[in-house]
Amino acid sequence: SCTGQEDMAAHVGASRTPQEVMEHYVSMYIHGNLGKACIPDTIPNRVTDHTCPSGGPLSPSLTTPLPPLDISVAEQQQLGYMPLRDDYEIEYDQDAETLISGLSVNYDDDDVEIELKRAHVDMYVRKLKERQRRKNIARDYNLVPAFLGKDKKEKEKALKRKITKEEKELRLKLRPLYQFMSCKEFDDLFENMHKEKMLRAKIRELQRYRRNGITKMEESAEYEAARHKREKRKENKNLAGSKRGKEDGKDGEFAAIENLPGFELLSDREKVLCSSLNLSPARYVTVKTIIIKDHLQKRQGIPSKSRLPSYLDKVLKKRILNFLTESGWISRDAS
After folding, report:
1. Where is the SANT domain (predicted)?
2. pTM assigned to the model
């Protein structure tokens, strides 16, 4: 202490300052030969910490409060948050304290009553640990700033790449794993999955080069340029062909059905319907005949037992019925 240094300096004399006396004592008696001979390298009977490591199932750190959240007073009131206690007005398992609120230790308690009270305390401690575990997860994943809408800009800055729609959907599906993985582990998982996807794409690209006889990366640039030119020529050729078709008055709208039997029997609207349903004109005429025949028989009170073709599913039937109703072939109640 300072007083001890001053007393020693006064005993030695006015020629030494308290600081010089302390440095001389440390160098000669602690770090010198005398200290090496008297002070052992390892001090025996050192107290060993036998508590569970931090984060373990019985670790005291599980119930240690976290630093308070850095949020405004209005946001604290919105959340019901008490920063000095790091608590909320409504906690997880709000009635957990009722387990011990009525407990009291009496001198005449027998062993069964004592063990029962200990069991209640143990249940309460477990609930506190679970409450704190949920707080830790919320703090790790920044759920409070996310609730307040304050983490969007921070996320955009942190992410070096754009997240695809598929990855967003996968993140939503894997949300239950948040409680088993830290935020960094979760982000590393998706970063590694992204790297794997990029590597697989690169491998496929290199295999395609190999199949085309390319064995050096210098040759790949020339190959890609030639491939781009071929695709551009093909695209221009298709564009010119479509323009010619429009000029000739054939835009190719009914190209799939115009050469099939019965095409000439269809009206313009029926041609559009058959083309959109990918249904041949002959099949459409058959279905149309059966539906109109059944409709007329029902209007005359004759029960109809016609069987529709097997290729006519519910979607096709509904589309054709709606079309015939709108066109006035059958009444609306029949559809």
Report:
1. 6-33
2. 0.42
